[in-house]
Structure formats: C-alpha cells, structure tokens
Design goal:
Elements lengths: L1 E7 L1 H5 L3 H10 L3 E8 L3 H7 L9 H8 L4 E8 L2 H9 L12 H5 L8 E3 L3 H11 L9
Antiparallel strand pairs: 1-3, 1-4, 2-3
This protein binds uridine-5'-diphosphate and magnesium ion (MG).
The site of uridine-5'-diphosphate (UDP) has 9 residues, from loops.
Length: 139
C-alpha cells in the first residue's frame, strides 16, 4: 500500500465539484485516510509550493490556492501516487486524456481542479505539511 497527498483545489470547491471528485476517488478504489475542508493563508500556500518559488506562475498560484476553501486529502491504494496522477490527468486540461478529472473539471492550466504528489518524498512532505499523525485514520 502507498499513500499520496491530494487537494480538491479552490476552483473545484467553489464550483461545487468536490462531491463528484470525491465520488471519482472512491470509485477508483482509493481509501480516504484523512480529509479536511480549509482555507490557506498566502504564506501557507507559498510554503506548500516552495519548490516552484522561482517559476513565473508562482505568485498567481499562491493567490489562487489561498483564494477560497479547498479539500485536503490523504489517499491510499497500491501505487497510489501514480494511480492518482493518472486519474487527475495532465496539468494542462487541454492536454489531459478524456475521462480524467482535469479534463472534466479544470478550467485552465492554473485553475486545474486537483493536486497530487509526484513522488514518495513529496508525498511524505505534503502529507506532513497538512496533517498530523493523529489525523491519519486507518483503523
Ligand atoms: N501551474 C500554473 N502554470 C503553469 C504550470 C503550473 O499555473 O504553467 C500551476 C498549476 O495549478 C499546477 C501547479 O502550478 O497544478 C503546480 O505545477 P506542477 O508543474 O507541479 O503541476 P502538477 O504537479 O500539479 O500537475
Ligand atoms: Mg506538481
């Protein structure tokens, strides 16, 4: 079993797509191990995306991720990191495969409905950034 960190981003929550995205997550066989509705400050969003701080889209990304409530999740499944990224689709919805979450729900490369960790080390950092050990529910 593997765990990954996921976000239903502020655009998807604002458009009331959180329920349908959670349904897709459950139908794909993920176990939800943690889940919280919350709003990030700009500093919290900047810390989460610190790896991107030199990129031209960083300021807009921080603005967007702190613009409204999001749903933070820990998902568990065999090969969860890759499995969740496959279900999300490409970063740019114009390039996302049919049937993926970003194809269906994202409106642009920036406001793209969901986040997913890209490697075991980033999953560990991201899960710890959002959740304490006691919030990970597995029994
Ligand atoms: N992003 C953006 N413009 C870009 C690339 C990325 O606004 O040209 C945003 C987008 O919200 C993306 C996030 O920055 O999801 C992180 O980028 P990354 O390359 O890590 O994509 P992801 O891992 O989310 O597919
Ligand atoms: Mg990424």
């Amino acid at each position: 079993m593997e765990r990954t960190f996921a976000i239903i981003k502020p655009d998807a929550v604002a458009r009331r797509h959180a329920g349908r995205i959670l349904e897709r997550i459950e139908n794909a066989g993920f176990q939800i191990r943690a889940m919280r509705l919350m709003r990030l400050t700009q500093a919290e969003a900047a810390g989460f995306y610190a790896v991107h701080r030199e990129r031209p889209f960083f300021t807009g990304l921080v603005e967007f991720m702190s613009s409204g409530p999001l749903v933070a999740l820990v998902l568990e499944a065999p090969d969860a990191i890759k499995k969740w990224r496959t279900l999300m689709g490409a970063t740019d919805p114009a390039k996302a495969d049919p049937g993926t979450i970003r194809k269906e729900f994202a409106s642009s490369i920036g406001e793209n409905a969901t986040h997913g960790s890209d490697a075991p080390e980033t999953a560990a950092f991201e899960i710890g950034y959002f959740f304490s050990g006691m919030e990970l529910v597995d029994k």
